[in-house]
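Hi all, a correction to my earlier message: I attached the wrong file for IQUB protein. Here's the right sequence:
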Amino acid sequence: LITSVLTDSDSFQDLAVKIERPTYRKPFLGGFKHRITGMEFHNAGSQTVPKKRPDKGIEVFCRETQTVFEKNKLQQTINTTSTQMTKIGLYVSNMTDKIIRPGNYVTADEYHKRRLEAVIVLQTYFRRWHAINLVQNLREKKRLRLEWEAQEEVKKKKEKEEKLQSEYRRRQNPKTKEDYELLYRALEGKFFLKAVLSIWRQEETKRINENLTGAERKAALCGLLDQEAQLIASIGRYKLDTDEENRQQAILRFLGKCAQPKSWKAFDGKITEMDTPYTLRARELLEIYRSISMNDIPKDERIDVLLTLRRTVKEHDCKLTQEIVELIDREVDLMMRDVKEYNLEGLRKRICTLFLQYIKTPKFNPEVAKILKVPPHPLQLYKNVNFCQSCKNYLPSSEFAVPASSRTIGRCRLCCKIDNEARKREAFLKYRLMLKNLRESEADYQDGAKIVYLIQQQDMQYMVEKIWDCQSALSACDDLYDLVMVRWDKHHEWSPWNTILLTKDEADAHLKLCNLQEAYEAVFIHRINRKHIHAKKYFTQIPEMASILHKSGDQTNTS
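and the right structure:
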């Protein structure tokens, strides 16, 4: 309520004015404005409450008044017809009349017989059309199959040629340990790939023994031995060069690993990288090492690199840094005296070696402590060290390749490698690849397989050569590059007594089988079981294998 005061001469009167708030939005119907006072006046419609419609007593907005009910009803109309005949007093023309005579009566059997004959005709044409389509589909499938087989044949032939070319290149230009294994294997085997193919040791020895006797035979064998020694010496010289090149690459990979930033994967899949003071320090040392290792750079740039190295190592004062600074000063002095480049090679190698030792010191490069194989604390070396009976050195356990059937540590990897190069000259690359493929395939099952990781390279070689005779159990294919080991029963974990050696195509088809008893003959299954018994008898000598075999046997008996 608002109280307003009205004045009329000397009298005052208070009135109570009731204000009603509108419950709707008023429409604007126009108005006018006083030009002098600026007061605005609206039309009455915008200030007046709309008049309420009177109630008629009839419910207008309801369901019944807006719904139409429909009803369908069938009706039969009356159709009255009549026939007019000629009679007295009426003539009806018969010019348009037709005479209808009844035909032959068709029995139900005759009708069904005629329909059956018509159906047979339709089926004949349909079957002809269906047969044509079927033959065309079979012909198209045959064509596609033959094309696929031809492509696979060309693909296999191409892969084989590439494999031979790769082996040839690896023997001609060996870089890794596996390449030198192939090279020594070729030296021992029938052919040695040099400029031309020449018959080598075994064939030559056989020829000498068959054709020569007495002193001539001894002289020929001595000549063969001298030639073999020359070839081995040439291989050794080439190996020294490749070892030096590989060593430099290994050093750069090692330093690059130290300089890598920290990275992790976020929830949205993006990779986040972060540099720490330690990684920045390692990256700085890596760039300096690359600079001082470069050859054929101008004299001024070399001096700048040496001065940068000098400032870096002088941050720490010790015997190693003092020696590096002394060598840097010596090289700068010799360069100022115009000494030849080849006379400075030894000095530069000493600087690189000492600076690499500086980089590998955790005190000067903290990031390297996480990557060094040798722990910085000497007491940690006693926990995992074994003694090599051949070279008489104490080495970490990672330097020993212990087969699953061995009960002692034996010789280290380096001694085994040297002995293989001198005597047997076997190439283990194929068995390493086979074991790697087997472990990758077992990891895909994700059923907690353990036995496959106990098997070593020597065990794989024994199984392939002694148990499976280096050939596929189905097709007798003897190409080891095309052979793989898979599970005999795919529902159980892989083991030497649950495996089969097949080609890659045969292995894919074997793993798709659901019932081995129906897929293979009894004779073949019996032969595979005999090989499994042989493998089980050999590998039960291993304590870990024996315990696993005992557990699997108990589970089989209980089930």
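Sorry for the mix-up. The two ends are 94 Å apart (CA to CA).
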